């Protein structure tokens, strides 16, 4: 009799749990949904505000990079914030926010920054304009309104007046050129030409 009573009690417990456990689970799920954060439609992911029609009319490339090696073994890299292909007038591609770095075989590095640049349609040189600054490894910093860099050989020049600050002092000149010395030993020279004026500033 005791065994039968125990079995009856177990059966009743199992039957009760079959009802109570699903109810408990349902109550827990309901609580989770009630306390969860409600979705605010205004918190949708932001989307890019791009004028597609303008992009189609004026195609452009963001953060382009040009890298090459000149015949004399110098490595040239040019990057920009934005570039646009050449127009129907035959002009070359142009870019804004331009930065360039020339590393010659002797290990010297020259950095150049400019507001804008335009590549020659022939692809042989780049014309930089707008507050151009050239920083040479020798410690000279040259400022000009325009400079041109060849892409096939090491040759950076300014055919308009330049101002330079360097170890010897302040230099003003009508033009400037950075090119291979031509003495056969792979050396490179930064040369100032035309009414060159040096204001010597002795080291303290």
UniProtKB/TrEMBL annotation:
The chain crosses the membrane at residues 12-35. GO terms for molecular function: lipopolysaccharide transmembrane transporter activity. GO terms for cellular component: plasma membrane. Pfam families: LptC (PF06835). It comes from the Bacteria. Keywords: Membrane, Transmembrane, Transmembrane helix. This is LPS export ABC transporter periplasmic protein LptC. It comes from Paragemmobacter kunshanensis. The gene is lptC.
């Amino acid at each position: 009799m005791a065994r039968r009573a125990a079995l009856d009690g177990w059966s009743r417990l199992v039957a009760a749990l079959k009802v109570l456990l699903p109810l408990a689970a349902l109550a827990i799920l309901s609580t989770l949904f009630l306390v969860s954060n409600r979705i605010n439609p205004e918190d949708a992911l932001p989307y890019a505000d791009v004028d597609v029609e303008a992009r189609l009319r004026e195609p452009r490339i963001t953060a382009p990079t040009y890298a090459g090696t000149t015949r004399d073994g110098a490595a040239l890299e040019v990057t920009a914030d934005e570039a646009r292909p050449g127009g129907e007038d035959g002009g070359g591609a142009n870019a804004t926010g331009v930065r360039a770095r020339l590393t010659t075989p002797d290990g010297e590095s020259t950095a150049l920054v400019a507001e804008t640049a335009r590549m020659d349609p022939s692809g042989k040189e780049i014309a930089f304009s707008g507050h151009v600054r050239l920083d040479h490894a020798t410690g000279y910093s040259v400022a000009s309104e325009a400079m041109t860099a060849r892409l096939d050989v090491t040759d950076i020049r300014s055919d308009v007046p330049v101002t330079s600050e360097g170890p010897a002092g302040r230099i003003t000149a009508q033009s400037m050129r950075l090119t291979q010395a031509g003495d056969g030993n792979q050396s490179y020279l930064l040369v100032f030409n035309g009414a060159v004026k040096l204001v010597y500033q002795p080291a303290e």
